[in-house]
Write a structure and sequence with these properties.
There is one protein chain. By secondary structure, the chain is α+β, with helices and mostly antiparallel strands. Helices cover 32% and strands 36% of the residues. It has one domain (5-172): Aminopeptidase (3-Layer(aba) Sandwich). Strands 1-2-3-4-5-7-6 form a 7-stranded mixed beta sheet, with helices on both faces. A hairpin with a 6-residue loop joins strand 3 and strand 4 (90-97). Helix 1 crosses helix 3. It is globular. Bound molecules: coenzyme A. Pfam families: Acetyltransf_3 (PF13302). Residues 5-174 form the N-acetyltransferase domain.
C-alpha cells in the first residue's frame, strides 16, 4: 500500500537492494544524477559507500537514510552538509526513489519524514535542496513539502556530459 512509507538510517545490509535498484535504473537516472563510479552498481561498491556514509553520520555531517515501502528498500533520503553551529543549523537534502516505486507519493512522504527528523532530532533551522530546472517530479516533491525556489546556480552540476543550471530551494524548519 503506497501509504506505508518509512525512513531509517542506512545499514550495511542495504547494499544489495540499493545496488540492484541503481543497476536497473542507471539509464533512467543518468539525466538527473551525476556520473557514479562503476562500483555504485554492485553490492560490494555500495557496501563501501555505506561505510563512508555511516562514517559521515558518526562525524555529525550526514544523516544517510533509506526509504522503505512495506519494509523494502525503495530509495534513499540523505541529509547532507550538516552545519550544526548555533548560528547556522542548516543542511541540504537529497533523495531518489526506484523507478519501480515512483509516482506513488513515496518521495513526498519520505521528505516530510526527513523534515520532521531534521527539526526534532537534528535540531536544524534551515534546509536547502537543488533540482534540475527540468526535473518537475522532484520540484513537485519539494513544493508539496513547503520548499520555495530562491535562485538559480548557473552551470552548477555536470549531468550526462553537460554542465547544467540548478534551481535552488529553501525551507525553514522552526
Ligand atoms: C524525483 C523522485 C525522487 C520523485 O519520487 P516519487 O516517489 O515518484 O515522487 P512522488 O510520487 O512523491 O511525487 C511525484 C510528483 O511528481 C509529479 N510528476 C510525475 N511525473 C511528472 C511529470 N512528467 N511532470 C510533472 N509532474 C510530474 C507527480 O504527479 C507527483 O506530484 P503530485 O504529488 O503533485 O501529484 C523520483 O522521480 C526520482 O528518484 N527520480 C530520479 C532521481 C532524482 O531526480 N532525484 C532527485 C534529484 S533533485
Amino acid at each position: 500500500m503506497p501509504g506505508r512509507t518509512r525512513i531509517r538510517l542506512i545499514e550495511p545490509a542495504d547494499a544489495a537492494p540499493i545496488a540492484a535498484h541503481r543497476a536497473r535504473d542507471a539509464d533512467a537516472f543518468r539525466r538527473w544524477e551525476p556520473d557514479q563510479p562503476p562500483g555504485h552498481l554492485t553490492a560490494a561498491g555500495q557496501a563501501e559507500r555505506i561505510d563512508r556514509l555511516l562514517a559521515g553520520h558518526r562525524a555529525g555531517t550526514l544523516w544517510p537514510g533509506v526509504v522503505l515501502a512495506d519494509g523494502r528498500v525503495i530509495g534513499q533520503v540523505t541529509v547532507g552538509g550538516i552545519l550544526p553551529q548555533p548560528h547556522l543549523r542548516r543542511a541540504s537534502l537529497g533523495y531518489w526513489i526506484a523507478t519501480t516505486a515512483q509516482n506513488q507519493g513515496h518521495a513526498g512522504r519520505a521528505v516530510a519524514l526527513a523534515l520532521r527528523l531534521m527539526a526534532d532530532e537534528l535540531g536544524l533551522h534551515r534546509v536547502e535542496a537543488g533540482t534540475n530546472l527540468e526535473n518537475l517530479p522532484s520540484q513537485r516533491v519539494l513544493r508539496r513539502n513547503g520548499f520555495a525556489p530562491y535562485g538559480v546556480a548557473h552551470s552548477s552540476i555536470l549531468l550526462d556530459g553537460s554542465w547544467q543550471d540548478a534551481l535552488l530551494w529553501e525551507r525553514l524548519l522552526d
